[in-house]
Amino acid sequence: MRYIGGKRYLLDSIMAEINNYTKNVSAIVDIFSGSGIVSSKFKEAGYSVIGNDFLYFAYVIGRGSTALNKVPTFKKLGVDNPINYLNLLKIEDTDISLKDCFIYQNYSPHDDVERMYFQENNAIKIDIIRITIEKWRKQSLIDDDEYFYLLASLVSAVPYVSNIAGVYGAYLKHWDARTYNEIYLKPPDVITNNANAKFYNENCDTLLPKISADLLYADPPYNSRQYLPNYHILETVARYDYPKIRGVTGMRDYKEQHSDFCVSKNVETAFRSMIEKANVKYIIISYNNEGLLSTETLSSICSEYAVTNSFHLTEINYRRYNNIGATKRKVVEQLYFFEKIR
Ligand SMILES: C[S@@+](CC[C@H](N)C(=O)[O-])C[C@H]1O[C@@H](n2cnc3c(N)ncnc32)[C@H](O)[C@@H]1O
Question: Is the pTM of this model over 0.90?
Fold first, then answer.
C-alpha cells in the first residue's frame, strides 16, 4: 500500500544498520508499523517481530498478513476460495439492505450526498463484503486468523478504487480513471517461515512498558500531519462501527489517535518518553531533515540515552524533493542508531 512515510525504499538501509551494528538480535519491535512493510521484511529475515500502530486498519493489515504463518484454510466456512467468493458477491445475493451500507450512504454521491470518494458500485461492494466478513465471524464460521486475513485483503484493495490523490483528506472533484475499475480483493502475502509475529493496536506509550525485545525500530510521523484524517475511510472500513462523521470529507472523530509526534510543543517529550519506556538493547529511529525536531536536537536526545560511542546517524539521499515556496529542497532520510543505557 502507498503510505505516507512508508519505508519500502529504505528497507535495505534499515537491514544494513542491524547487520552492521548489532549483535545477537532475534526480536524486534516495529512500534509504528503503518503499512506493515518493515515488519514483514523483519519477519522474512527470520526475526521475531512485534508490530504496532494506533490506527486499527494498520493493525488489521499486519494481523491479517505478516502475523500469519500459513494461509488460512476456511474449513468451517465451506467456501473453496472465500476471496473469490467475495469478489463475485452481489447485493441481490445477500439480505443486506442499502440503508446499512455505511460507505455507500456517506461516501458515494447520491440523493443529497455529494462526497465523491467511490463510484456507487464500488461503495456498495465494499459494504457488502465488509458486512459479510463480519457475519461469518459472528456465526463462528471463520476464526480470528481467517477474519483478519479477509479484512486485510479488503482494506488493501480499497485505495485502488478510491477517488483521491493518495490520501483521504480530500476527494477529487472529477472521477479518476481508477474509480471505474471494480474493486478486486487479492490474497494477502503470508510469510510461512514460522518466525513469530504479533501485532498490537495501541498507543506506543501504553504498549512499550508491557513488552521487551532486542531492538526497537521507531518510524514516527515527522511533521504535523496527523495520520487518521488522511486515512479516515480505511479506518472506518476496517472498524465498520457506523461512526458519527462530519464536514465535507465525512471525517470520524480521532481524539484517541492524535499523535504527540505531530505536535511541535510535544514532540521532544514524545521521543524521550518512547526511548525511556523501551525495554530493548538497541534503538533505530527513522526520521528526516524536514522533521519537527531538528537533526541537532534528535541527535542530542539519542546521545543522552546512548552507551558511550554507540550513537551514529546515517543519512540517505533518496531521490525525493519537497517544494517549499519557489525552492526545491532535498529530503534526506535519516537512521539514528544507538545502544541504550540500561
Ligand atoms: C511514518 S508512519 C510508519 C510507516 C511504516 N514504517 C511503513 O513503512 O509503512 C508512522 C505511523 O505511526 C503511527 N503513530 C503515530 N503516533 C503513534 C502513537 N503515539 N502510537 C502508535 N502509533 C502511532 C501512525 O498511525 C503511522 O502509521
Answer: yes
